[in-house]
Protein: Phosphoglycerate kinase
Organism: Brachypodium distachyon
Amino acid sequence: VGDLGPADLEGKRVLVRADLNVPLDDSQNITDDTRIRAAIPTIKYLLSNGAKVILTSHLGRPKGVTPKFSLAPLVPRLSELLGIQVQKADDVIGPEVEKLVAALPNGAVLLLENVRFYKEEEKNEPEFAKKLAALADLYVNDAFGTAHRAHASTEGVTNFLKPSVAGFLLQKELDYLDGAVSNPKRPFAAIVGGSKVSSKIGVIESLLEKCDILLLGGGMIFTFYKAQGLSVGSSLVEEDKLELATSLLAKAKEKGVSLLLPSDVVIADKFAPDANSQTVAASAIPDGWMGLDIGPDSVATFNAALETTQTIIWNGPMGVFEFDKFAVGTEAVAKKLAELSKKGVTTIIGGGDSVAAVEKVGVADVMSHISTGGGASLELLEGKQLPGVVALDEAVTVGSVTV
Ligand code: 3PG
């Protein structure tokens, strides 16, 4: 079918599903506008080709109509970034919305109210999806962060609105988190961290099929140490995952993946920002102490391994980086990736806490790709199909995407 160009868009009503689920503080100020900024290129492209954009998103997890989950606080920032005044509807469907859509000029944006104010959204009720679809002539899904949800505005609507296509952001996320990871420039290293191995089992198993080097950090390493018979003091351990840890180590060997666990750790006498700390070998954690970060020898070994690569995916922090004292390992990884990215290595930050770490260090701009998805990134990295993507027509995107 090809790309959607000017001829397809002039005067057309385009329903754009974005993920504008941004954090707000108690005064309803946006504390991180990344997701809004990420949604702008697709909207601008549609506007510049004369389309009428009907923008829909969820915010939070409201149970019914809840004023504090209104999308109203997003309007000023959206308007500023788009350079036009965005109109806002007080509803998602219904006669008032229909009137606003009918009066919408070419090149204008109407933001619908929080789509989760209708319980039919998460239930993916066809009647609701049909009403959403009836507002527009075509559908663009750019909500990567919500693509793992089979909801009315991400999946159901595609049954009633053709064509249904991917926006630039969704396409870019797929190009990196699926394309570059499944077909990487080698050597390909994956860095997986986070506190629990249980939440990363699928990701590790899937990456073991694809990567050449796997670096593990974060709280999950203590489950691996314990599985190897090391004493871990009072570090976090998932006792019911010891066998799994052993089998993951065996699988790495079988696949010829070089799996590196940290050789030294920074330990603390309590879980607190002001805890006493010391660096010890991973095999020498005393009783009563817990590991909260990887140590300098591990950083050096990880860096040396990363130096050899052409593609790196990172998901999950190396330690408790919310506490400055235990953020050193995570920050070192962020800095190394920034350095390698500048040298042409493809660096992909796979969502969640690693994104926060990269932003904290101030190196977000130099990475090849920073995912806007949390759960969606994990599911994609696990090799799962995302319902919001599966539902789209194949081989159609808005414009031509170059990454
Ligand atoms: C997210 O923040 O991960 C997405 O916006 C999806 O939100 P949800 O987990 O409430 O579906």
User: Anything to note?
Assistant: The longest strand covers residues 13-17.
